[in-house]
Design a protein that fits this description.
The chain is of the alpha/beta class. It is 25% helix and 33% strand. Helix 3 packs across helix 4.
Length: 342
Amino acid sequence: MRGVKVPRALAEELRVIMARRGIVDKTLAILDDGGHVMIPVLKEPDPEVLAKFHASTFDGQFPSRHTRTDPIDQVRASVSVPEELKLLLPEKWEQLGDVVTLRLPKELGPYERDLGEAYAKALNAKTVLRDIGGISGDYRTPVVKVLFGTDTVAVHRENGILYKLDASKVMFSSGNVDERMRMASVQCEGETVVDMFAGIGYFTLPLAVYQRPKRVISCEVNEISYGYLVENIALNKVGGRVEPILGDNRDLPGDAFADRVVMGYVKTTHEFLQTAFRLLKSGGVLHYHETCPNELLPGRPVQRLRDAARDDRVEVLRFKEVKSYSPGVSHVVVDARFTRTS
């Protein structure tokens, strides 16, 4: 049996990350020797994740899990819905701190209030939301309905970083966890970094908490997200390194002053490439995110970079698919070095 051994203080955070990816073996018990926790897994996590949590894999024996009840089993046992509909109960959910978001099939609509309470009890959540429309608009706003509770503000801990947000008004994608963790390991000591689409600090905070940039200029146009960005800078004690700016990143003053630019937005990110190249020094690095049909990968994102750079040089350093965005479409990130030729 394959397992992951992790220091006890970091174990729960790593367990949540692996559970979201579906690689924790829920049929076996987690072991704790006081200093380390051993988590049974179906497959090995990415090496970057293991390194971040000072974890390692091993082959060992795990007892069957008899004493712990899976939350979905608790829900099935407690809700008053027809037995044939219990098979439709969601076995996955988004949990940010103590706020949970569910996707319910329409057949369960008449029972949504009872389900909200049942999931809240099983997951020890103060509030349960129903996802009724995904993400909407340029500000990537969740379209949700409150099923249980009233307080939709959560403080979510990931990779040792605190993210405060209103889960009914601000998006937080658990599928981007690998990229947030990667940004924590990007070497940027002494650099001036511009985060063009900072949100609540998704990439700003890992850079500022775990690296030593000279400063991170974090631009956000959405007033609600900006408010939480300011709070999160204080929560994580990085006020001396992060400068939050409310407004359109195209209005940022100055040319060729940034050593690194982060473009952690999707759909229309390419429309802002001219601004990114204006801000970058020659030799600077760009982290460019895009959503792209799979049949156009990796060509379209790279070509968009080169088209926007015009006569200047773009060297691709890294290309990675972050996650599936929708059927046939992927969220990808390209790291590229930009060099002025004139």
